[in-house]
Hints:
By secondary structure, this protein is mainly β. It has 10 helices and 50 strands. The strands form 17 sheets. A 5-stranded antiparallel sheet has the order 24-25-26-29-30. A 4-stranded antiparallel sheet has the order 8-9-10-11. The protein has a 4-stranded antiparallel sheet with strand order 12-13-16-17, with no helix packed on it. Strand 2 and strand 3 form a beta hairpin.
Amino acid sequence: MFYSLEGKALENFLGAMKLDFHKHLVYPTNISSECSVCSNSEQIEGAKASESGENGVTCKSNESQKGGKSGKGGESIESGENSETGQRRGSGKSAKASESLESIAGAESSKNGESGENGKSGKGGESTESIAGGESNDSSESIAGGESGKGGESRYICKPCNLYAHKDCVEINNPYHHKHPLKLLEFDIVLDFGKTCRLCGEKVERLFYHCFLCDITLCRLCPSIPLVIDDVPKKVHEHSLTQVMIKVSFTCDACGICSDGFPCVCLPCCFIIHRDCTKLPRVIHVNRHDHRVSHTYSLCIGDWGCGVCRKGIDRVYGAYSCSICRYAVHSKCATRTDVWDGVELEDIPEDENEDIDPYEVISEGVIRHFLHEHDLRLIIEKDGNVSYCYACTLPIYCDPCYACMECRFVLHEACAKLRKKLRHELQSHQLILCLNPRPGQAFKDGYFSCDACHRRCTGFCYKYKRIELDIRCAQVSKTFNHGSHPHPLFSISTAFKKCTGCGRSDKPVMSCIECVFDLCFYCATLPVEARHKYDCHPLSLCYGENAKGLYWCEICERELNPKEWFYTCNDYGSTLHVNCVLGDYLHVRPGHSFKYNDNEVEVVANDHPTRPSCSLHSREWRCVHPFVFKRKVNNTISSMCDYYFRFC
């Protein structure tokens, strides 16, 4: 006989209940699926009230197994004494199910066991329906097959949310992990965004545990982690460690940081450590140092400073140090994602024969650079014959340089000695020196944008994947001394800061650790000395003056703020804007060509008697910037102001 159940009656019949941690009604079930809390598909300790047998048969506890062994089709298997038919003894409908049916359909439950008409009962011991005891049946599966008993439902299910949870995961009463009960909560219910786990420090996800008495939050996985750590690596500690579930203030022996938390301790050794510090790597490479550094629990006698944050190191606590030179880093600073590349090097031998020389000496004064196919000869440019270095793109006046014996390729002597590989503060991985964009490529591929100074460049670059630095910014590393400030500058932060030189907010910047002074890479790499066709003397970079009166730029004939940086001639006293002297394409080499709209465009110096019209102002103005672009269209050559390409 079938009955129609709807609404509250159906929910009551299926055992629906409202729990604190979820917004929908949940139902007891014995369906085996991955628990949304502990991520375990098996029943956890204490929840194994039943085990699944063959053909979907569910085992019951000993007290409810006196009625016999039930098969899926409704037939019971004789397995004990005094087995009789199910029609004589009956299985008995549960009281709960009978009351629900009477309230909906007005029918009485059958005392002769309607659900057992086709079955036989015995004493054997496995049954999904309480035959002798008449226990209540809460499972939704018992409607069709009458197979499930109360003891077999060890999980909650919410189908709309695809949520499965062990009953024992909903609330944890384990003094070993915490002295108060830990209740399962959900973000959608408590709206408690921003909480972090007090054990692992990670931001909690959708489901988490909380103790309202202590105001302690744990992620859903930490309560299942053993508190006794038996597999501690020997490099960390020689004994097992035990995590103390009492919040205390302590200083970690591995990282030297004093914090409030739940430490791991070894009482015989008086050893205390953060749990996450047990996973610190032993030997690593940091981007501030050329040698490997290894973790140690104490440094030798002396004053130590961190090579990353530049603050002092307490030598009695753990840190990373170099075995070749006097260099040390805080444990937490060394393992930052912007400092360490994430590679453990303890069992990896170091390549002592790594080739980092950029060229091979062919003969005296003749070399073969690894980025050029021809031999280069050392020469000194004559005065008046200006060439542009293919590496840094800056002019070569009377400096020694290496010039190609077969083409126009030329390098400063210092640029020819640039290392193949180097480490830089702006990238945790090692950077490799690469060739500049080749001439004739499309406009977007004919240059690269430096990730430090944000200039467009066509010279050599140090590169790792999508990170590209021009060679001048790549040399600004470690301790940097600049003429605008008396103290050394360091790259210690990747946050936006206001540059003292140009006044713009930028990142990354070089900062002073003794006073408030920040310098962006654009200003840090400005040439200290420059030349311009308006003045035959060298121009010196001035870092601002506290002077009264009006200053005028000799190039654009506009007012100049003396408190800002500008170029000046020490012989004639002329003043010039920085941008008027250098332009927007300081690192675009004259002579470099690219394609734009299928037309060949070449960068040329704007030092000819006839200058192109300025695209910024009007056709009556002539472009005053040091570089212009020469375009060839159908054998017709025309020049364009560089402003035309600024926003391309």
